[in-house]
């Protein structure tokens, strides 16, 4: 039985299949490959191979996935063959009876939200409403050589940084921010290129409406001993209103010579065009070579950094900024 996209959108499935047996049962699996090739095999619904095929297919939607080799036995009464192909050639799987794959976001004890490998599930006709996640953190974001290049630049360009305080602190918000920044840093292209690649995944995870990316801003910051950024959001002024997403890429020298400097992201309520931070917040650790994304209207803060050496090279560095939608006329 071929499964059409219509059936996926509005399942028109016999009632006998709405609550299919959870016990393992045989599934006819048709593997669709690029170029129109197809192979059919029979697997148990709980077969690791079926799970692996769904995992490969879901990972295909992630731009930074590296293709791997897949080898699948195709035994039948008359032959004993195997097919080998690169995982990026897998374009679809047709299963009879239907098997749906679910992406399962998982929160780790650190509050880090990641995607777990999808589990093949037979009873996912009405998946539960997705939970809204405040942020997504992606680890190992840059290849080691680019991470190192950025670190070399950040640690050897002390003269190019300016104090953030004068631009941020006011009579009303005294001592609001204290750190160093380069407003127009070098080496941003390779980060921006990767931002574009992960955007679909970030938007899906944060359950945001698609938007056109009009502009990406980038700055480089250094937080050393005693530095912080009190609670604020990033799009509260007319000039910043088109910022949709905030991203923060963290990097520093190993072994890590500072503590603190966590990012706290608050429950945020929007009333009368203003954003208000609530009591509850999530803590994000600024893991080396990780990037965090969250909606720019969320209230957030950088908790004070403790860096006993006070050496500039030991700072908590970020390449961070904002993804903007087109300005409203
Ligand atoms: O460094 C961070 O973790 C966040 C920085 C931030 O909130 C900002 O620059 O607006
Ligand atoms: Fe911010």
From TrEMBL:
Residues 210-325 form the Fe2OG dioxygenase domain. Pfam families: 2OG-FeII_Oxy_3. Keywords: Dioxygenase, Iron, Metal-binding, Oxidoreductase, Vitamin C. Its cofactor is L-ascorbate. SMART domains: P4Hc (SM00702). Residues 1-24 are annotated as: Disordered. GO terms for molecular function: dioxygenase activity; iron ion binding; L-ascorbic acid binding; oxidoreductase activity, acting on paired donors, with incorporation or reduction of molecular oxygen. The keyword Oxidoreductase applies. It comes from the Bacteria. The keyword Metal-binding applies. This is 2OG-Fe(II) oxygenase. The lineage of its organism: Bacteria, Bacillati, Cyanobacteriota, Cyanophyceae, Leptolyngbyales.
């Amino acid at each position: 039985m071929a499964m059409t996209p219509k059936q996926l959108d509005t399942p028109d499935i016999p009632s006998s299949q709405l609550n299919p047996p959870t016990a393992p049962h045989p599934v006819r699996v048709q593997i669709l490959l690029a170029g129109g090739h197809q192979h059919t095999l029979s697997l148990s619904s709980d077969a690791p191979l079926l799970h692996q095929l769904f995992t490969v297919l879901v990972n295909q939607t992630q731009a930074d996935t590296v293709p791997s080799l897949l080898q699948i036995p195709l035994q039948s009464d008359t032959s004993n063959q195997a097919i080998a192909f690169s995982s990026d050639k897998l374009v679809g799987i047709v299963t009879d009876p239907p098997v749906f794959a679910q992406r399962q976001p998982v929160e780790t004890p650190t509050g880090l939200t990641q995607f777990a490998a999808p589990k093949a599930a037979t009873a996912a006709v009405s998946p539960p409403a997705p939970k809204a996640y405040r942020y997504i953190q992606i680890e190992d974001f840059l290849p080691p050589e680019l991470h190192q290049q950025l670190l070399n630049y950040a640690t050897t360009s002390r003269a190019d940084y300016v104090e953030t305080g004068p631009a941020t602190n006011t009579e009303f918000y005294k001592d609001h921010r204290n750190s160093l920044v380069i407003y127009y840093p070098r080496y941003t292209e390779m980060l921006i290129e990767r931002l574009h690649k992960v955007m679909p995944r970030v938007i899906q995870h944060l359950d945001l409406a698609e938007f056109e990316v009009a502009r990406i801003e980038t700055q480089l910051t250094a937080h050393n001993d005693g530095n912080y950024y009190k609670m604020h959001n990033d799009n509260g002024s007319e000039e910043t209103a088109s910022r949709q997403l905030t991203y923060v890429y963290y990097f520093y020298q190993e072994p890590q010579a500072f503590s603190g400097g966590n990012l706290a992201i608050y429950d945020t309520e929007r009333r009368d065009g203003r954003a208000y931070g609530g009591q509850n917040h999530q803590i994000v650790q600024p893991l080396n070579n990780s990037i965090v994304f969250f909606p720019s209207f969320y209230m957030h803060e950088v908790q004070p950094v403790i860096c006993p050496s006070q050496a500039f090279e030991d700072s908590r560095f970020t390449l961070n900024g904002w993804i903007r939608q087109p300005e409203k006329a």
